[in-house]
Amino acid sequence: MRIRKYSYVAVGGTFDLLHNGHKLLLKKCFEIGDRVVIGITSDRLARRKAHEVSPLTERRKKLEEFLKSLGVFERASIVILEDPYGPTITDGDISAIVVSEETLPRALEINRIRRSHGLKPLDIVVVALMKDDDGRPLSSAKLRRGELRWRKLW
């Protein structure tokens, strides 16, 4: 099966405790996109979460280290998200967005906003949630609470 390639892809998240689900999502972005804009939530936005989140400086450092380990850092631009949308609702050059099953509703909302601004909707690429050994979805909150085991894939 041939993979569709895009010139400019978007992805966003908190990227707390960068786990294998995040890594799978990011790898998919660079598999399908020549360039990738990665939105990472600001500390202010992350405080809205119902659980503890590492500081932005720490989350960004881990994200950059992972991108460098994949050899894709030069193809990425990292932006700080002060709202749930970032550049996806204003940048007409972005042609696709990569989301998890969990964040698909946000991508649909982004496309509604883009249409209202006269922009072409983004192609939406959905990545299945990664599960732990017990079949439960990975999440930073569950990892922080010790409910899931770390498994090294990369």
Can you offer a commentary on this structure?
Helices cover about 30% and strands about 20% of the residues. It has about 150 residues and is α/β, with parallel strands linked by helices. It has one domain: 3-Layer(aba) Sandwich (Rossmann fold). Strands 3-2-1-4-5 form a five-stranded parallel sheet, with helices on both faces. Helix 4 (about 105-115) links the parallel strand 4 and strand 5.
How are the SSEs placed, and which strands pair?
Layout: E1 6-13, H1 20-32, E2 33-41, H2 43-46, H3 56-70, E3 76-81, E4 96-100, H4 104-116, E5 123-127, H5 140-144
Parallel strand pairs: 1-2, 1-4, 2-3, 4-5
Determine the oligomeric state from the structure: single chain
Q: Give the overall shape, derived from the CA principal axes.
A: globular
- Secondary structure: helix percent: 25-40%
Sketch the major β-sheet.
5 strands, parallel
CATH topology: Rossmann fold
CATH homolog superfamily: HUPs
Order of helices and strands: EHEHHEEHEH
How many domains is the backbone divided into? 1
Distance between the termini: 24 Å
Mean pLDDT: 87
CATH architecture: 3-Layer(aba) Sandwich
Task: Show unreliable segments.
Answer: 150-154
